[in-house]
Structure formats: structure tokens, C-alpha cells
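Action item from last meeting closed. Structure (689 res):
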């Protein structure tokens, strides 16, 4: 069904470009896979003038047209086209409005929505606010009332707000941009002029979670001091060594108690299921100072676990380790307690002033920080990883070679679409990207071909500085080396900034899909000192790969395939080329090929393509498309017949603020093809220069 919708969206855009009336597609074979309409619903909008005039707007997926049964004495349904509405005048009462969706092949889905028509003001209005447990900035609202037809909601976070309309039983959601308290106002409307409204506050907070880095401007690092210990968040006065972060915690231990310290409450209980090693960076004025890290239950301080270690250096940052492998995981712990020099009363001097930072939980006792390449074979390195979103990563061996140590990641059933794994706590040095070396590679053993794998690198001291890109597996149950080019960042993510200190990496298998229990093996995370051609669909397109599937999406008579070069010679002696046969269908018949990552137009803005045309003056359109309607195109004419020539398409005017991830080719736009030799074209080496 998605393919069907996509074909028609392309066709519609090309109709606008060509200024032609759309004809009926002669080739209807794709209709065999047409699914029944889905996600059928409707919205009711009643005029507040006691007339009972209701506008009914149906919606759904895979719809050719709707039938609306009003639910009153009217027996003949209204036929409504997608995107349109119907109006009907009702008397006061409650009506069951039936919406029937018809697909293009006649398949039917129906649903019923209850409509209340009343001219009196709504009564007993109430609504429920729910904060998303996985996103503290996202809230959802449901509302109910008596005599209402629909609701309007004002989220209270912007001036001159345009309300969102919804029905009883619907769930509306909103993402707030910042922490704070907002007044949510819900207005209930009926068919009369009078309305009813209710206002409730919602407080958006950014809870303290592990790791505690002190870097967030929105988190309230609310330490509760006791016994003479005083913790504050300050600018890092010792930005050097292993800790160059901007903010740190400072503990000043004063009299009177030998157990003076501080405690902070986390937003959720600590998850010790997989990770049972605490690490914390400490700057101590002396060697041998004792550092106690303790966890406690939220309400019962008697439920606790603690470990104490001692500093080994003075006046320098070191990474202390607290082994929690013996913690009782059946208990709930939500508080972190810090006590320096337990058993000795402090005096508030420099000798009792400690800095600390990056309190985090890992799953190993590392003896060395990571360096690239990460091979998992060095016995002196415990290759700690941190899973999130439902991933489970374990040490394992190569499925084909038990002597080779690898990681085994399971994207568990129901895992988040963004579930991933962070490789260690960071590398010892910045990944040495340059303007011409922007790639990394990972060896992957995947259960299937065609799976997207995302790699993200970031500054481990500032996670707002990151860049992400993707590769795609080309084989199943065998090792392959995936190449990740960070010059082509994933859609919706930040571009590479060579001034940033990228020194940490995370990998995401089957990105953007929920977990199904798939298992991936991976090894050899490496920086590539010389850029190479990625082993997935990306520019340049030369059609020479024996492993990449060049999956053209043909439409309206266009038919592109990869074939042996029948005219090897001149400027093109390659063995494989693309062939486009334009048959009858539409004058805009052509083909589309989707790339794994968006095209990088930041520097290069000229397309070149080799073309072999049967005639001079044939029009060649090269277009790029992206999400949300992003598109740009240029058309040139062939200047030779029956010989290879290189055509140039000037993209200097393209909007580089948009994302483009597909290449569309149309030959002789405006002329119907007939599938003959006169409408057979060859193309190759699509490059961006």
C-alpha cells in the first residue's frame, strides 16, 4: 500500500511540473496488493449558533472515497472524497455517525463515531494530563464532558496560541520546549454559543538521572546536605586531564560530624539489571582520601548498598571505580549518597574540598580507556558498553571463528526504535576526522540484508555535539564491513562540525524499527584514514557493485534496470550501466532510486551523468526528493545521438536547508514513450561535483 501511495505522490508532483492533465495509468498490476482502508476516523466541527450545522471531516489511509451515514432519519449516505468534508444539520440529540472507507479496488472498512448535538453549554468538563514516562517534556490529554460535541485545547506555552481540536475519546499530545509550569486550558463546545472551559497546571521537570554530569542547564542538581557536608555545582576550576567538562560538583566537608556528606534523589530507580559498576571522576587534595558511594531506597534508608575506595593521586582528576556486583537487585534504590573521608570530621579547608563529576553506571571493571580501532581482543582492556532502549549486549565469539572475540547485541522484542549501545565511556583521544577523512567502519554479522545500522559519534562531555549517519547491510549471516560517512549525516540530525571533540561512539541496529529479538554480532570499530566508497546505495552511482541491490522504483511507464554496457567505448568503458525504457503510461514516466543517507549539498552542487541517447535533443530531467515535499530538479538536452556524453545539471540554487534522499530520472518529460529503441536510454556514473 505504501508503494501505491508513493507512486501517486510522485505522479502528482510531476503533473504540476509538466502542466499536464493526469491520465489513467494503463498498468494496474500494482492493485493486486491493495490493502483495505485503515485508521478510519472522523472529526466533527459544530457551529456555535444553535443551527445544529455539523461539518464532518473523515480521514484514514488507503482511501479512494468515503461514505458518511449521518445517523439520523437521512438514509442516503454522503459521498466524500479524501481531504474533503460534508455538512449536515442535526436536531439536538446523540447520533451514531458511520464512516465507510472504500479503497480503489473496492475493499471496505467502516467505523462508527458518536456525535452529540446540544445547544446548551457543556457540563461536567474534566480532562486528564499524563506525562510520558520516557519523555518528561511530552504530555497527553484526554477530556470528557456532557453535551459537548468537541474540545479545543490550549497548551499554554506560546503567545497567540492556535488551539488543537479533538473529540471525546481522542488522545492529544504536545512536546514542551522547556521546563516550567504551564496552564493547560480545555474548552468544551456544543452547538450553542455558550462554552465551558477548565484550566489545570502541568509542571515539566527534567529529572536527575544517571549519568550525573552537571552539564544540563535544565536539570536541578538538588543535593541535600547533612552533618557538615556541602555540595554545590560550580564551573570546573580544574579543566584538564581526563575531565575538561564545563561544570562539576564540589564537596566541602565542614564540622561537626565525621559522616558529613550529601545525598541526591534520582527521577527513577537505578537499573542494576545489567550494569553494576559505578564510576566517578574525583579531584582530591591528597592521596588516600576515602570516598564512599552509597545507594538508598527512596523511602527506607535501611535498604541500601555502599562501596568505599581511596584516591590514588593528588591535585589531578582520576576515575574511581565502585564495584556493585553484589548489590541486591530485588531492592529498589533511588538515592545516591556521597561521603568523603568517612570517620574524620572536616574543617572546611582546602584539605577537605573535593571535586567530583560524571557519576555513571557501567557493566565492567575497565582497566584501560578505549582507543580506535576497538577489536575486543585485548585482554588488558575490559570493553565496557552501555545499552539503552532495550538492547542487551554481551561478550561473545565470532559465529565462524571461536578464537575471535566480538560483541553480541540482541535488540529485544519490544525494544525502542532508537535502542542502541554506547561503546565504552569514551576514547582516549578525539577521532581524527578532517575535511577529507570523514568515515568510520564496523564489521557486522547481521541476520538479514537491508537492515539499517546507525553510528553516532559525540563529545562525551557535551552530548549536544554529535553527528549521526547510517549504513545498510547487504548480506545475511556473514561478516561484512559497513562504512559510515559522517559527511552525509542522517536526516534530522546535526551536520559534522570538525571543531568538535568527537570521542565517543554508539551503534544502533535496525534503527527506527522496534525490537523483534534480532541478534547482531559486531567487531572492529575503526576510523578510516582514507575515504572509501560506501558499500550501500550512495553517490556516486556507477552500478558496478556486485552486492548492492540497485532497487529502482519505476512509475507510469518508466522502467530502469542495471544491465551489461552494450556500448562500452568512448568516455564510458564500464561493464555495467543503467537502462531506461520509456513505455506508454504517462508522459512523466520515469524511475526513482532511494539512497541510504541524505545527499550532502553543503559544498558540491553540480550533478553529472553519462547518457547514451538514440537522438539529439532528448530531454533529461534529474530531480532529487526528500521528506515533507522537499524537491529540486534540473533538465538538460542531449547533444549527440548513439554515443556517450556527459550531461551537467546545475544545482547551485538548491535549498541546502532541506534534506534530499532520492534521485528521480525522467527522459522526454511531456512526451509519451512507446517502449521502442527511440525511447531507450542508457545512463551511468551519476556524480556530485
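Sequence:
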Amino acid at each position: 500500500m505504501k508503494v501505491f501511495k508513493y507512486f501517486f505522490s510522485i505522479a502528482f508532483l510531476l503533473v504540476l511540473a509538466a502542466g499536464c492533465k493526469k491520465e489513467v495509468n494503463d498498468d494496474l498490476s500494482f492493485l493486486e496488493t491493495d490493502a483495505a482502508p485503515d485508521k478510519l476516523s472522523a472529526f466533527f466541527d459544530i457551529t456555535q449558533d444553535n443551527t445544529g450545522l455539523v461539518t464532518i471531516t473523515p480521514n484514514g489511509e488507503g482511501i479512494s472515497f468515503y461514505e458518511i451515514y449521518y445517523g439520523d432519519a437521512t438514509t442516503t449516505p454522503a459521498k466524500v472524497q479524501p481531504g474533503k468534508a460534508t455538512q449536515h444539520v442535526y436536531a439536538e440529540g446523540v447520533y451514531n455517525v458511520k464512516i465507510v472507507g472504500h479503497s480503489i479496488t473496492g475493499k471496505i472498512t467502516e467505523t462508527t463515531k458518536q456525535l452529540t448535538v446540544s445547544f446548551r453549554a457543556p457540563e461536567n468538563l474534566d480532562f486528564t494530563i499524563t506525562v510520558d514516562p520516557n519523555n518528561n517534556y511530552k504530555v497527553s490529554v484526554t477530556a470528557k464532558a456532557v453535551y459537548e460535541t468537541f474540545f479545543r485545547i490550549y497548551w499554554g506555552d506560546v503567545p497567540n496560541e492556535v488551539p488543537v481540536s479533538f473529540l471525546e475519546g481522542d488522545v492529544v499530545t504536545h512536546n514542551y520546549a522547556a521546563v516550567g509550569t504551564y496552564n493547560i486550558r480545555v474548552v468544551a463546545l456544543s452547538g450553542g454559543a455558550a462554552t465551558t472551559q477548565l484550566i489545570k497546571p502541568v509542571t515539566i521537570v527534567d529529572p536527575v538521572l544517571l549519568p550525573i554530569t552537571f552539564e544540563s542547564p535544565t536539570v536541578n542538581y538538588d543535593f541535600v546536605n547533612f552533618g557538615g557536608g556541602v555540595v554545590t555545582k560550580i564551573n570546573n576550576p580544574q579543566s584538564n586531564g581526563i575531565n575538561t567538562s564545563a561544570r562539576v560538583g564540589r564537596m566541602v566537608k565542614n564540622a561537626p560530624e565525621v559522616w558529613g556528606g550529601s545525598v541526591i534523589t534520582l527521577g527513577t530507580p537505578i537499573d542494576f539489571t545489567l550494569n553494576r559498576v559505578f564510576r566517578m571522576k574525583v579531584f582530591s587534595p591528597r592521596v588516600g582520601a576515602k570516598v564512599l558511594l552509597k545507594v538508598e531506597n527512596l523511602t527506607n534508608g535501611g535498604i541500601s548498598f555502599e562501596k568505599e575506595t581511596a584516591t590514588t593521586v593528588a591535585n589531578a582528576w582520576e576515575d574511581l571505580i565502585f564495584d556493585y556486583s553484589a548489590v541486591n537487585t530485588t531492592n529498589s534504590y533511588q538515592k545516591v549518597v556521597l561521603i568523603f573521608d568517612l570517620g574524620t570530621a572536616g574543617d572546611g579547608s582546602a584539605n577537605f574540598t573535593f571535586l567530583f563529576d560524571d557519576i555513571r553506571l557501567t557493566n565492567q571493571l575497565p582497566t584501560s580507556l578505549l582507543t580506535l580501532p576497538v577489536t575486543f581482543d585485548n585482554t588488558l582492556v575490559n570493553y565496557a558498553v552501555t545499552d539503552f532502549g532495550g538492547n542487551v549486549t554481551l561478550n561473545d565469539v565470532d559465529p565462524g571463528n571461536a578464537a575471535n572475540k566480538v560483541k553480541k547485541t540482541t535488540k529485544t522484542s519490544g525494544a525502542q526504535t532508537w535502542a542502541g549501545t554506547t561503546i565504552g565511556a569514551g576514547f582516549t583521544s578525539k577521532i581524527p576526522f578532517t575535511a577529507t577523512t570523514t568515515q568510520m567502519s564496523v564489521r557486522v554479522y547481521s541476520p538479514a540484508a537491508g537492515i539499517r545500522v546507525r553510528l553516532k559519534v559525540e563529545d562525551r562531555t557535551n552530548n549536544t555535539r554529535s553527528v549521526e549517519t547510517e549504513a545498510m547491510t547487504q548480506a545475511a549471516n556473514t561478516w561484512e564491513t559497513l562504512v559510515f560517512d559522517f559527511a552525509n549525516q542522517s536526516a534530522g540530525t546535526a551536520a559534522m562540525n570538525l571543531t568538535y571533540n568527537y570521542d565517543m561512539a554508539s551503534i544502533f541496529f535496525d534503527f527506527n524499527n522496534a525490537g523483534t529479538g534480532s541478534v547482531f554480532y559486531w567487531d572492529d570499530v575503526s576510523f578510516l584514514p582514507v575515504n572509501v566508497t560506501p558499500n550501500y546505495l550512495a553517490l556516486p552511482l556507477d552500478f558496478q557493485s556486485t552486492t548492492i541491490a540497485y532497487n529502482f522504483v519505476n512509475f507510469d511507464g518508466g522502467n530502469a534496470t542495471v544491465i551489461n554496457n552494450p556500448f562500452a567505448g568512448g568516455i564510458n568503458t564500464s561493464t555495467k550501466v543503467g537502462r531506461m525504457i520509456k513505455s506508454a503510461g504517462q508522459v512523466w514516466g520515469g524511475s526513482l532510486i532511494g539512497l541510504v543517507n541524505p545527499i550532502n549539498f553543503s559544498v558540491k552542487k553540480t550533478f553529472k551523468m553519462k547518457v547514451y541517447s538514440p537522438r539529439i535533443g532528448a530531454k533529461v530531467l534529474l530531480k532529487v526528493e526528500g521528506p515533507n515535499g522537499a524537491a529540486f530538479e534540473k533538465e538538460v538536452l542531449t547533444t549527440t545521438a548513439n554515443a556517450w556524453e556527459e550531461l551537467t545539471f546545475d544545482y547551485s540554487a538548491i535549498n541546502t536547508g532541506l534534506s534530499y534522499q532520492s534521485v528521480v530520472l525522467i527522459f522526454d518529460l511531456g512526451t509519451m514513450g512507446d517502449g521502442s529503441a527511440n525511447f531507450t536510454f542508457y545512463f551511468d556514473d551519476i556524480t556530485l561535483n
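Note appended to the action item: Confidence is low (pLDDT under 50) at residues 1-23.
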